[in-house]
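Possible regression after last week's pipeline update?

I re-ran a chain I had predicted before the update to compare outputs. Posting the input and the new output here so someone can diff against the archived version. Not blocking, just want to make sure nothing changed silently.
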Amino acid sequence: MKAARALLPVSLRGYKRAWLSTDVIAGATLSAVAIPEVMGYTSIAQTPLVTGLYTIIFPTIVFVLLGSSKLLVVGADSATAALLSAGLLGVGIAGVTPNSPEWLAYCGVIALICAGMLAIARVFKLGFLGDFLSASVLIGFLTGVGVQVLSGQIPDILGVAKGSGNWFAVQLDWIKEIPSIDWSTFAYGLATIVIIVGFKRFAPKIPGAIIAVVALIIVSTLTHAAEHGVAVVGSVQGGFPPIGLPQGISMNNMASIVGIAFSCFILIIAQSAATSRSFAMKHGDRVDINRDILGLSGANIAAGLSGTFVVNGSPTKTQILDSQKGRTQVANLTMALIALLFTMFFTGLLTNMPKSVLAGIVFLIGVDLIDIVGLRRIASRRRSEFIIATITAVVVCAVGVEQGIILAIVVSILEIIRRQYKPKDFVVGVNSAGQPTYTPSAPGKQSEPGLIIFRYDAELFYANANSFVDDVERLIDAAPAPVRWLVLDASSLDDIDYSAGLALGGLIDFVQARGIKFAITRADLNLTATLHRYDLLDRIGRPMIFGNLSDAVDAFHRDASAPHE
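New output (post-update):
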């Protein structure tokens, strides 16, 4: 029995039979939302309609077998689809145009390259890379993607020609075309939006997207909409997903698409890790991010070998699954099975679906990506990060999605450096109850006459070491009473690099040259060992290393009361 359980995928271990009916119902409900949604993503990725369905068949199944998350839904995603399309348009490979077999082949190769990057990340346990996209930057990036996605659907909803050029030029083009709106096309697009929003508002448990698709296909068929100028999807390829390597790829173009794959790789790690972690914590489960990366690598291999494009962990579909009380990946297997059956037997039903219906679905996907609540929350709590989020969103719209993700990475790293370079620092005191008090460091501050206890709230490294020394020297120079003891509160330091060690040595020389005693308190064993390697421990003197603040303050008082020659 134990051996049989060990053979189960990690995501299904501990499964209880009582969960089966709930999972199957949740999976069926999820498929009703996911099927029209992933078809919509193909208009972003600019691939054939059926490829969206492929993203929730074999990639989903492979993630179930290899991943660890019980709820994470893997499939097409608007952000990665936008990265993919913008990237391929940007590199401009000769003869490769949107919706062509060659375009789809390159999409498949990008998925395979991305899978390789994810596999390397799993081997070297690089799941932490996702943490380098801060929440504010990710909100800004997805907001920019949302604006780009929804604005890109407006011409199809209005039934006017799409413009070309940068984002602003494209918007100006459709605005100029407003007098030429095809009102029949617009009616289908508007009806789609009204139906989905109406069900979300008044009957949120009913999937409005599938209702809109079914109802408007029926209307389109009965009224012969295509004969009245309404653009329809037309014949949709059905049958079993094609299995095999993408064909027609020139090796000369491989270098130009690696950057696209890398951008998708970073976004997949950041978005999927955040999604799986948040839902696991909500249910009291632990999450193995590196195991999920393995699952996502396998899912993208499956995508590349089954005729579709890059897949990602989907926050929206995972939220839907959770709201339907889905317990495990059995729900996602149910969704994959329904999508496979639909692909094999029912794609013919999509022939008369107006393209503006699909555009309306994608328009609302874009709206959902714009996190107004999140932006307001950032603005009210940390204005500097709101500015960063806004800049990221603007770059995504004005310059491009791929450039936006690169900016997001760079800005996130620069923000880390900025915080470490100029952190908060404090003059620490001890009150009558023996509890520490923290006063923001400023010239003229002391812990008590003759004593400065200084706390630097960041790791000490080459970039901020000189700033640290300058702050301490200013405190000493501006002290209202002559400083006799300087105590470094090392509770926020667990290591210092070589440059910081040299700077600390210089500070010890500066202090001791003025007849001031230098001490350290609350240093952990790792920091103490580092100070010993740098020959600083002997220069400070082991008696001047204290385990807590009270001991350091008591030693200062004893020294002050002792007779001095």
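Follow-up from reviewer: compared with the archived run. DSSP finds 23 helices and eight strands in the chain. Marking as no regression found.
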